[in-house]
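fyi for ur records
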Amino acid sequence: MKAIMLAGGEGTRCYPFTYLSPKIAQEVGGIPLLEYMLSWFHGAPEIEKLYIAVRNDPMAETVQNYINKRKHYLPKLLNLFGRLGFKVEQANPSLEIEVVRVRGWGTGGDLRIAINEITSIDGLGGDFLVCNADYVTVRRLPDGELSPQLNLSDIISYHKSCKTALNTVMTVAVVRVKQEEATRFGVARLDKAGKFNLVRGFIEKPRLDDVPEEPSINAGVYVIDGGFILSVLDQFLPERPGTNLEKTLIEQLAKDKSPRLAAYLLDLHAWFDVGTLEQLVDVNFYVTSMKGT
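which gave:
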């Protein structure tokens, strides 16, 4: 399975730090945010290749150069995570990573460009995974240790099972947050269908009055049926600036009378969307003070 990490945003909410370096290079506990994201994929053997989508040629060259050289330092990176109190598993140490150039056209516009690029080179294959590039997650493992790795394998397995059972075409990972926090995100209305959750309504950045008491918000991780999306690219992911994945794809699938969109509810110790300077400081404080918790 292939995966796409969307890192084409300008990082305006993290100015002035992102004048110095892109958001994925910002540090959390001394480790670049990109490494927290890459740890997810090193823990998922199902992912054979990851494409990182960035917004310009200089950034693409810098990130690809870093990717090429970091493989020699993986043992040291694991040790650094361990010093923060994290356990990182390398179930996929030979993960292939390639950087692709997009245009900063929003989550949907950049995903469309990335899909065009990938299908012209390698082919997209069947199901594929998409994620944004600015999260720090903390998961408690069965042995009680803490890990920064999201369990992508579970999300992929859930997507395949739901697709087989209910003919869904996409799965979105969701996470529960406080009601007042949900207005910054897309909020999903979930219905149960046996052991699965279906998204039967979705509002991007709703008013507080429209947010339920225990909201489930979009956590920015998706598994998509490749055959489906390639057949409807112009409808759901038009190739133009400002195309918003959440509005053009997720909201539309949630409105369909037949169940098209599944939801995987994340069970996490902590979840951080590192979108602003304040959130970057908050996650640094959390990570550097959590050892031994």
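Residues 2-289 form a domain with the Spore Coat Polysaccharide Biosynthesis Protein SpsA; Chain A fold (CATH 3.90.550.10). thats all i got for now
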